[in-house]
Amino acid sequence: MKLSLHIGAEATLENFSFSQLIVITKELFDAEGLPGFIKIFMQIIEQKLLASEVKCKYCESEHLYGHSTQERKIKTTVGSICLTLSRLRCQSCKRTFCPLNQLLDLDQYSRKSRELEKLSLETITNQSFRRSSDILEDTLGFEIPHTTLHSWFIKTTATIMNVQKRTQNLIADGTGFKKKKDSEGSNRGEVKVMVGLDSKGNVVPFGAWTRASWKDIGKFIKNKNHYSEKVKFRPIASALITDGEEELIRHLKKLASSHQRCLFHMTYELKPLLQYRDIASKEHAIEYSKKLGDIIYIDLPEQDIDPIKNMEHKLKIEIKYKEMQRKLDEFIQELKMMGYRKTTTFIENSKNQLFSYIDNWLKTGVSNPRVTSLVERMMREIKRRIKKIGFAWSERGAEQMTRLVLLQLSSTKDQWDVYWKNKMGFDAKIKLRFLGVTVEY
């Protein structure tokens, strides 16, 4: 099939400008050319569709006849396209439907294309809805009200994440945000985030929740990955890395084989604990915080294929590991002698989770992360979007936005593109070629 494009052109050789030609051509194609071409192309597709053996989408009957036509204006990244859709009526079930809707996978009342929805969601991830509206208007040439963007954002299903998967490590954290005041007058909300880290270092998002407790989240993920009650639950990760929140650990530790306390949070929280709870001097608090950091950190060698060298590494690490445990016990005794009861209890309660990264390396040759810095970077971006750019969120809105940020920042961003390619039907065999221009005077 060949389509001829007709363009009326007027030009004089006086004051001719190449830049002006480019700008005017772009304006013509943006305003009329591309939308007009797509409209005509869709009319041809509909004619071919109606000429084929169309079956009723409800009862598969072939006894159909024309019922009516309707016009629908759809916003796309190339402009607003007005489609004329033919509606057929089935003689068997007496129901009506639009064959083109079924072919294009359009929603019944859709007023936007899927590629425009994708662009809109990616835009509002980085700035407010009002500013996103201005940016899209400058880019696309037509207005999309910020209220419309918010409606698309709330209704999108692109943020639904599959938690039925296994990963090398799990990292969980939470942060507060200002929400709309509830019945008790409180505007304090919390968003809880969980991501995985696979063996290649890729970040795998599990989800974000604002209306569920850590207990609900742990139970939900366990049930999704526990295929039969007759079989013992198998942990979905090798290690769970946390900042030490008790409720989080209590309800999520069953998802992993081991638990690793974030070493950065241990040393970071030790100073204020000594200074304000055990009333130690600032100099003592800094000194003991640095001393704890020197005890619990060790650089592990890369996994070595040579079994002899690997055994040498393992023996050295085992010796160093025992020395670290001995120094930690001495450190706890020193704190007791100084009368720092709160700090002593804090370290004793965390002692068994400080060296999981060494235990895992000795068992498998692969270490888990020692800090939650990976999710902390994501949490900073999440805080920027839901605290600094937006406020007075609904719990559902904060949850949706957090999931959008996770999908955009994770190493699996390719999955976001694959999701939209599947949703937009990129498997269809459509090819367009430029065959040249015919000039008529």
Write the SSE topology.
Layout: H1 18-51, E1 64-76, E2 79-90, E3 96-97, H2 99-104, H3 114-124, H4 129-140, H5 146-155, E4 169-178, E5 188-197, E6 203-209, H6 214-225, E7 237-242, H7 246-252, E8 256-261, H8 263-277, H9 282-296, H10 307-338, H11 341-350, H12 356-364, H13 373-388, H14 395-409, H15 413-423
Parallel strand pairs: 4-7, 7-8
Antiparallel strand pairs: 1-2, 2-3, 4-5, 5-6
Helix pairs in contact: 4-5, 6-7, 8-9, 10-11, 13-14
Element string (H = helix, E = strand):
HEEEHHHHEEEHEHEHHHHHHHH
Unreliable sequence segments: none
Number of strands: 8
Give the structural class. alpha/beta
Mean pLDDT: 86
